[in-house]
Structures are given as C-alpha cells and as structure tokens.
Fold this protein.
Amino acid sequence: MATNTLKFDLKNADGTAKLARVLSMNIQSGDTILLGGPVGAGKTHFARSFIKSLLITDEDVPSPTFTLVQTYETQIGEVWHADLYRLSTEQEIEELGLSDAMTEAVCLIEWPDRLGSYTPTDALSIDINPLSALDERCLTARWSHPKWTAKTKGWQHD
Ligand SMILES: Nc1ncnc2c1ncn2[C@@H]1O[C@H](COP(=O)(O)OP(=O)(O)O)[C@@H](O)[C@H]1O
Ligand SMILES: [Mg+2]
C-alpha cells in the first residue's frame, strides 16, 4: 500500500534523535507517526527526542508502557505518545481518546499493529530495526499520503 520509502542507517542513538528532531519541525495537528520494531529498537528514544524538541519547558518523557498514553502541551499543540503493547481490546483505543487524537492532535504510536481497524491510512510508518553493531539501527519510513513527501524533505539534506 505504501508507495514511498526512505531508509537510513543510523550509527548511534544520537543519529536517531537527530532524525526525530528534524521531522518534528514539519509536523502539525492531525499527523500520526507509527513506530514499529522490536523491544529495545529505539521507538521510545525516537518519540522522546521528537517530543523534547517541541516542549515549551523541558519535562520528562517517560515510556507510556503502563499508562498506554502520555500527552504533552507543545509549541505545535497537543502531542500524544502511545505504547499499545498492553492494549487489550480495540475498543480501548476509543476509551483512551486515541481515535479522536489521531485526527485532532499529533500522535506517536508504538506497537501500531495493535490499532487493527483504527490504523490511519494517512500515517507515516517508521520501523526501527537493530543491526549487528550494538548501537546501529536501520530506520525505514513508509507512507502513501503525499503530505509526508514534504514533511520528510529535511532528512535528505544531512
Ligand atoms: N541507534 C539507536 N537508536 C535508538 N536507540 C538506540 C540506538 N543505539 C542505542 N540505542 C539505545 O537503545 C535503547 C532503546 O530503548 P527504547 O527506545 O526504550 O526502545 P523501544 O521503545 O523500541 O522498546 C535506548 O537505551 C537507546 O539509548
Ligand atoms: Mg518503547
């Protein structure tokens, strides 16, 4: 389904943080970013770097492992950070307010496979996967909605 793909080889955690910060500069309400990849890949690290670059006053950005969602007031409005690993039913997506947030706020969602029928078709999908070197990751971004072509442009001028 996705028609556009970008791939990056990230040498360390700072490389991932930099991509997250650059992307955050072009984001607005209604944009959803799906963060895939195994435990320890760096999904939370990406989301934390993204959110911290938009916060008005610095605060902790903990992993939403148990709360499922954390929300932040930022320079560009509300940002939601979700970790759906422990989601029990799709109905919970409504109850958490996440289905509305995906149209009204900025959402960063870990374990996006749990969204099932709520998966937005206009999202940017980012998959982070470990490589053989300890801190090295392969990041793949995929999208079909044309808005992401402009929003990911900043990545190509590094
Ligand atoms: N290139 C990299 N990108 C992202 N994280 C990295 C990288 N190299 C090392 N790390 C480390 O890997 C860990 C990833 O943890 P986390 O972001 O919580 O993973 P996840 O949310 O995918 O389970 C962090 O401690 C981070 O510092
Ligand atoms: Mg995580």
Q: What stands out?
A: Residues 4-153 form a domain with the Rossmann fold fold (CATH 3.40.50.300). The mean pLDDT is 96. The chain has one domain: 4-153.
